[in-house]
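Batch job 17 of 40 flagged for manual review because the log was empty.
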Amino acid sequence: MLILRHADVRQILDGQERLVADVVEKTYKAHDEGRTALPHSIFLRFPDSPRDRIIGLPAFVGGDEPATGMKWISSFPGNLEQGLERASAAIILNEAGTGRPAALVEGSVISAKRTAASAAVAARLFTAEPDTHGAALIGCGVINLEVLRFLRSELPGLRHATVHDQDPARAALFARRAAELTGLGVTVADTVGEALAAHRLVSLATTAATPHLDLAPLAPGSTVLHVSLRDIKVEDILAAQNVTDDTDHVSREQTSVHLTEQATGKRDFVDAEIGRILRDPASFRRDPARTLVYSPFGLGALDIALAARVHAEAAAKGLGVEVEGFLPGETRPS
């Protein structure tokens, strides 16, 4: 059993935005081609703390180098008040041929980067203005910082970001760090409406449990990367073009897409899924006069595919901690 620690994963993935985006794109295509097995995620909730949850995402990705395993990721928003990360994760990789556990991988870096890569790939595909110069980020946490890194990679014309958070001090700190890490000009918007109006590309990565945003300030043709899934009201979903990564998966757990399905009894407001568009760009027409909302549920296949790539790189470079005697019949340490 190879254990890959946080620092090991960072060493492999830091500065590798195009590599991560490439893994995400290939996995989305494989999913659309039916070369994945992707059961619904398992949500563990706690009666006395409804905001907290731990999610299990099992997946298999086929192809020349098949990968299988499960991500186990927690989200405890109250951790932020204690100076801890909101989310933490572990990924188990299994040998595709035997099912035996092969690696335990620290998963928070993989989870954040595959999420951000998915959003940035969508931004490249769907922005009505190909030479996009600015983006608004609402929610100043780890995910939107990664989103900005990946937007910088996928949109070479990007020059500026406007950020907003309910906590002004958090937004100011985020702005300084984002400017240092990306070299972009970053300003803080005092209100969410000001942020929405600033650019035609918006990333939502909040901890909201119910829809709360008024999208009226958006300019026509805006693209909204709805990473946090629960910010947008039913009427705004219905007014927009909608793209998902998997409509069946995202229509659960009171997401905005799920609420819209409950309100209408249909899913015909979803225009396309990103895997099909990546495989056949002509299958989808972007309407430059309407807002487009991309709602990625965050498929476990992305985590497993990226973790498998990290595992292979780590094994080749001698990174991680090898634990002997973990499984029956293996050599025990002396």
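Reviewer: the log was empty due to a logging misconfiguration, but the result itself is present. The longest strand covers residues 53-61. Unflagging and moving on to job 18.
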